Amino acid sequence: MIGKLNHVAIAVPDLAAATALYRDTLGAVVSEPVPQPAHGVVVVFVTLPNTKIELVHPLGEASPIAGFLAKNPNGGIHHICYEVADILAARDQLKATGARVLGDGEPKIGAHDKPVLFLHPKDFCGTLVELEQA
Amino acid sequence: MIGKLNHVAIAVPDLAAATALYRDTLGAVVSEPVPQPAHGVVVVFVTLPNTKIELVHPLGEASPIAGFLAKNPNGGIHHICYEVADILAARDQLKATGARVLGDGEPKIGAHDKPVLFLHPKDFCGTLVELEQA
Fold first, then answer.
1. What distance in Å separates the CA atoms of residue A43 and residue B36, rounded to the nearest whole number?
2. What is the pLDDT of residues B37-94, one digit of tens each?
3. Where do the structural domains in chain A lie, given as residue ranges?
4. Phi and psi at residue B12, in whole multiples of 5°?
5. What are the chain A neighbours of B99 within 8 Å (beta carbons)?
6. What is the pLDDT of residues B12-42, one digit of tens each?
7. Residue in B with minimal Cα distance to A48
8. Which sign, positive or negative, has the C-alpha torsion B58, B7, B29, B74?
9. What is the CATH number of domain B5-133?
């Protein structure tokens, strides 16, 4: 079912510092910050030859990553995103095994303008998993 | 400096259950368990089209991931591994910026029989980063 690893999302307390770290210290190609008000985050995309790292920082009130950063003040890996060919088929197949889909279970339009869902970390080795329709 | 994302390592409390989850529920290609006594872990490799997930479970006394699993009983993402062309050049360049290399700073032979180093999470957005010579 799962295809490519689309990205690894790292929540960061200081987006400018994290961007400089990946650009200058680690020598990677980084984007400008991309505000995503609908998701409550600002994202810098780090392009690697085979996948992406997303540096994610809270935007606005009640950002979905504010709690994570409160618990992890240095930042940390927030989630990983796998691509699937058909997100509704994937969801139904996963739910049939008892896996929990977060929220109301309906795909939302994610950061790449494609339908996404999040799966419960307790059902996936303590890892928050995003599925994105490829 | 950094090239491909070589793998994401997920520490798991139950290797058989995690393997079944990735193979049967998520439909990915998984390896047999590979004991790595020199590293104190048993690893199942999950092959994705563009990178790997490594499901890592403690092996023997004083496994380097025992403490992580004690703090994260459901498991969780333990580290990410970036490839570099020249690990000694990468190390020296990173150290010159003040970044901390774990251990004695000398590359060890890692799980793929290639030289690896680990970088201090506090210097890399709260993320344990492994560098592997490609």
1. 37
2. 989 999 999 999 999 999 999 998 889 999 999 999 999 999 999 999 999 999 999 9
3. 5-133
4. -130, 140
5. 25
6. 999 999 999 999 999 999 999 999 998 999 9
7. B4
8. positive
9. 3.10.180.10
| Rounded Cα–Cα distance for residues B29 and B46 (Å) | 6
Q: Which residues of B touch A26 (CB under 8 A)?
A: 1-2, 82
Residue pair A23/A102 in contact (Cβ under 8 Å)? The answer is no
Q: Across all residues in chain B, what is the average pLDDT?
A: 96
Amino acid at residue number A39: H
Angle of CA points B19, B20, B25, to nearest 5°: 120
Q: Does B44 touch chain A (CB under 8 A)?
A: no
Q: Which amino acid is at A32?
A: E
* Chain B, window 98-127: residues with a beta carbon less than 8 angstroms from a chain A beta carbon: 99, 121-122, 124-127
Give me the residue label for tokens 């062309």: B85
